[in-house]
Amino acid sequence: xxxxxxxxxxxxxxxxxxxxxxxxxxxxxxxxxxxxxxxxxxxxxxxxxxxxxxxxxxxxxxxxxxxxxxxxxxxxxxxxxxxxxxxxxxxxxxxxxxxxxxxxxxxxxxxxxxxxxxxxxxxxxxxxxxxxxxxxxxxx
Length: 140
Ligand SMILES: Nc1ncnc2c1ncn2[C@@H]1O[C@H](COP(=O)(O)OP(=O)(O)OP(=O)(O)O)[C@@H](O)[C@H]1O
Ligand SMILES: [Mg+2]
Known about the structure:
- This protein is α/β, with parallel strands linked by helices.
- It has one domain (about 1-135): 3-Layer(aba) Sandwich (Rossmann fold).
- It has 4 helices and 6 strands.
- The chain has helices at about 15-25, 45-50, 95-105, 125-135; strands spanning about 1-5, 35-40, 60-65, 65-70, 90-95, 110-115.
- The protein has a 6-stranded mixed sheet, with helices on both faces.
- β3 and β4 (about 65-70) form a beta hairpin.
- The radius of gyration is 14 Å and the shape is globular.
- It binds adenosine-5'-triphosphate and magnesium ion (MG).
- The site of adenosine-5'-triphosphate (ATP) has 12 residues, from α1.
């Protein structure tokens, strides 16, 4: 399953959700899990590896059962074979709507999760963003 976590407001819990989903999925130890960090802040990458990545497409394998890839340039997402070894791919993206739309278009997720917090900003513009996503997916 491919799960993309996106939100146009910062600090709402995207990374927290992404790392927990990856951790929970890895817990049974059977499936191969990729956590793809598409945020230049590299918070997901640093959470699992305790290291700061030095270059784009840096991969750390077997971090508590999770392979973690820092792909802040959003490279090779539409190449289906590139990540075909994984049973589950969880993608943590930054707040730029254009970046989220690119990732969603190219990786074709099964699920898109959009966390919201108590602040109005996390729901402001949400209808427009959802509409853009729906159009990109050809599903109005
Ligand atoms: N469900 C939650 N309940 C309470 N606090 C939370 C929850 N999820 C995340 N937080 C806290 O909110 C803060 C922001 O979380 P996080 O870094 O996951 O957000 P983010 O959306 O990834 O931020 P950014 O836009 O900077 O990437 C952190 O301090 C985190 O511990
Ligand atoms: Mg984050």
